Structure formats: C-alpha cells, structure tokens
C-alpha cells in the first residue's frame, strides 16, 4: 500500500487572505475572491492517485466485469460500491450482475492512515532574583489522518479458485472530508486510468459530481 503526503487544502496566503482579521468580505466578494485565487494558484482540495497494472493482462472496458463485496464490508464501503457501479455504467464499462459470467471482478475498499505531521512546543518560565528563571516546556506531537480508497480488479477464475491477486489496482489518498465529498470524481479519475500505470495529484475543485 502506498503512503503519500497528505494533499493540501488551501495553499498559500493569497487563498487564505479572506480569513485574516480585518478582511471583512461579503459572501459574493468572498466567493469571487476564492474563485480567482483558485484559478491563479491552483488552491483547493487535492487527492493523490496511483494505479498499477500487471503487464501480463490487458483489461478493457468491453470485457464483462462484475462488482463483488464481502460480508464484512463497512457501511462506507457499501456506499462506495454504489458509487463505483454508477461510475462504471456512466463510463461505458460492460457491467454484469453475475460474477460467473464475467471475465473480471472488481471490489472497493476504504481505510484510514494516521501519521505524524509535526510537533509544537509550549514553554513557561518564572523569573527569580538575580536574573535567574525557572520554567518548563511541553512538546506535543501532531497527527493527521488521511482517507484511503482502493479499487481492486481480479480475474474471475482466480477468485473462484480462492486466489485474490489483483491484476490492476487504483488507489487514492486525501483528507477524509475531501475523499467523502469527491468520491464520485476520484473514482472516475481512477477508472480513467483503467488497465494503465498512472500517478498524479489532482485538484478536486470544479470537478465535483454529486453522489448518484
């Protein structure tokens, strides 16, 4: 499983200026400013995408593919299954309902990755006579949690025989809020690289698609 640096949200002082004290923006002006800032400096929610293809296989959209899900899938994963199916149909994949009549089977997985993002320190001191001071300091370790979305493609014959070795995979890492809000867009972007090796960091703003 890849581990990527957390994609940034707003990226730089021009995009954050509307938040500073003394900047009193009306709603229309704030929206206009943000749209201009995004256009100029590429700010906004981002997702890191990577796909990998086994060179022994060459899956195509015309091949029959079925979606599978285990009995232990989470609620979030069951939600993603519906989004995945919608995006497969919308992007003209040959989706079938019966796995035994398919060439490939696909599944989706959701998880999180918590990692150390830095530290902050706080110090306090009490001055004493003679220029002497006593004090203490405390360091706090900061953590950030990313959402991870994985799509796995398997040969139906392999799964039937108990093997779960993926022949193509698509993975995305983003802030959990970004991954939740832009799941349709992220899944579509991964499917655009179906059967290919691909790696990119995508700006999600202006690409949002509502859930089906």
Structural overview:
A hairpin with a 5-residue loop joins strand 4 and strand 5. The chain has one domain (13-203): Double Stranded RNA Binding Domain (2-Layer Sandwich). The chain has helices at residues 13-16, 27-41, 75-90, 156-160, 176-181, 183-192, and strands at 46-53, 64-67, 94-95, 104-127, 133-155, 168-175, 198-203. It has a 7-stranded mixed β-sheet with strand order 3-2-4-5-6-1-7. The radius of gyration is 23 Å and the shape is elongated. Helix content is 26%, strand content 35%. By secondary structure, it is α/β, with parallel strands linked by helices.
Task: Describe the secondary-structure layout.
Layout: H1 13-16, H2 27-41, E1 46-53, E2 64-67, H3 75-90, E3 94-95, E4 104-127, E5 133-155, H4 156-160, E6 168-175, H5 176-181, H6 183-192, E7 198-203
Parallel strand pairs: 2-3, 2-4
Antiparallel strand pairs: 1-6, 1-7, 4-5, 5-6
Distance between the termini: 28 Å
The number of distinct β-strands equals: 7
Strand content: 35-45%
The CATH topology annotation reads as Double Stranded RNA Binding Domain
- Secondary-structure arrangement, i.e. CATH architecture: 2-Layer Sandwich
Average pLDDT metric:
79
- Derived from helix and strand composition plus strand pairing, the structural class reads alpha/beta
Total domain units: 1
The number of distinct helices, counting runs of at least 4 residues, comes to 6
- Helix-residue proportion: 25-40%
Radius of gyration: 23 Å
Q: Give the overall shape, derived from the CA principal axes.
A: elongated
Given as residue ranges, the uncertain stretches (5+ residues, pLDDT < 50) are 1-10, 12-25, 206-212
């Amino acid at each position: 499983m890849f581990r990527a640096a957390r994609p940034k949200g707003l990226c730089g002082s021009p995009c954050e200026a509307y938040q500073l004290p003394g900047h009193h923006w009306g709603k229309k002006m704030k929206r206009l400013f943000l749209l201009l800032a995004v256009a100029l400096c590429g700010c906004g929610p981002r997702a890191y995408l990577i796909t990998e293809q086994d060179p022994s296989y060459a899956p195509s959209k015309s091949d029959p593919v079925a979606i599978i899900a285990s009995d232990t899938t989470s609620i979030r994963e069951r939600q993603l299954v519906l989004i995945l199916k919608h995006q497969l149909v919308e992007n003209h994949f040959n989706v079938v309902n019966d796995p035994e009549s398919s060439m490939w089977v696909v599944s989706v997985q959701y998880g999180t990755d918590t990692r150390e993002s830095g530290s902050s320190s706080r110090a306090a001191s009490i001055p004493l006579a003679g220029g002497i001071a006593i004090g203490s300091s405390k360091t706090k370790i900061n953590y950030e949690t990313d959402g991870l979305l994985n799509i796995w493609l398997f040969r139906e014959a392999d799964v039937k025989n108990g093997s779960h070795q993926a022949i193509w995979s698509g993975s995305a890492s983003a802030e959990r809020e970004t991954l939740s809000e832009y799941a349709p867009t992220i899944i579509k972007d991964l499917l655009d690289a179906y059967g290919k090796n691909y790696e990119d960091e995508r700006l999600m703003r202006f690409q949002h698609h509502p859930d089906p």
